[in-house]
Design a protein that fits this description.
31% of the residues lie in helices and 33% in strands. By secondary structure, it is of the alpha/beta class. The protein folds into two domains: 96 residues; 157 residues, Trna Endonuclease, Chain: A, domain 1 (3-Layer(aba) Sandwich). Strand 2 and strand 3 form a beta hairpin. Helix 1 crosses helix 2 and helix 1 packs across helix 3. The longest helix has 23 residues. The protein starts with a helix and ends in a 15-residue tail after the last strand.
Length: 269
């Protein structure tokens, strides 16, 4: 009997074989970008003699956001550069070579103690790291605390399309306002401890806000679990296609009675 882990490994290997076939059918040394579409998957499956997955979209999604690219593709990356797969329109995608840019939590930041307002029932039934993280951020109003705004969750797991990119999914979308009444749109991406904050999702989140909410300010946020259930929040921006960290804070949710009243005075700017 094949284990669940074994089936997952077979699926990942099959997906990577398909992506590798598509990549090298178009790759030439010196190229920095080239496109393909979803219809290339059946052709690649036939050429490789492997069963075509029922969910073609999951093949692309997996290698974009869940698993690393195949080793033979990684071997073509120049020093300091990496391949990403970005949307290029409806059912179309683009391999593009970009600078390696890792957004990871800083180890030297203070951990800010926040009274934990997460309902116990929510903690009991969250199904995965991403779902748990989004719920914890929402119930503890961490976006408000981090940005200094009053915010409201508009929709989570929003699937939509962006011109020039194609179909995207935003983990959670907030709207907010400041003390002057200015309105903001705040896309949030949630990452577990081992997942990486990437340029692809940040770019598509910002482009979505630019197209769907022209005239409103976008403040793109990434939330990530650290060790000991500490939550790192980043405000991100794009400069010439690279991710830049505008601000970063780390929050530790604790029982209210355990917060040191004298210590919290040190949080003042």
């Amino acid at each position: 009997m094949t284990s669940t882990r074994g089936r997952q490994l077979v699926k990942v290997n099959r997906y990577q074989a398909l992506i590798s076939r598509i990549f090298f059918a178009r790759y030439e040394q010196g190229k920095t970008a080239f496109e393909f579409d979803r219809e290339d998957l059946p052709k690649a499956a036939t050429e490789l003699g492997i069963q075509l997955p029922k969910n073609l979209g999951d093949v692309i999604y997996s290698v974009r956001f869940r698993s690393p690219l195949p080793d033979d593709i990684l071997a073509t990356q120049p020093v300091g550069m990496e391949w990403i797969i970005e949307g290029a329109g409806r059912s179309a995608y683009r391999f593009r070579l970009v600078k390696i840019n890792r957004v990871v939590p800083r180890p030297d930041l203070v951990r800010i103690a926040i009274p934990d307002a997460t309902p116990e029932l929510i903690r009991a039934y969250t199904l995965d790291d991403e779902q748990a993280l989004l719920a914890i951020v929402r119930y503890n109003r961490l976006i408000d605390t981090f940005l200094g705004l009053t915010t409201y969750s508009l929709q989570n797991h929003l699937r939509t399309t962006v011109k020039g990119i194609g179909q995207i999914e935003i983990d959670e979308l907030y709207v907010g306002l400041d003390k002057r009444g200015c309105h903001y749109v705040i896309p949030v991406q949630a990452k577990g401890g081992k997942d990486q904050i990437g340029v692809v999702q940040t770019t598509q989140d910002i482009r979505y806000v630019e197209q769907k909410f022209p005239g409103l300010r976008c403040r793109a946020i990434a939330a990530q679990f650290m060790d000991d259930q500490v939550i790192a929040l980043f405000e991100l921006g794009l400069v010439e296609g690279d991710i830049k960290v505008v601000e970063e804070r780390h929050y530790k949710l604790v029982p209210a009675k355990s917060i040191d009243r004298n210590y919290i005075s040190t949080y003042h700017d």
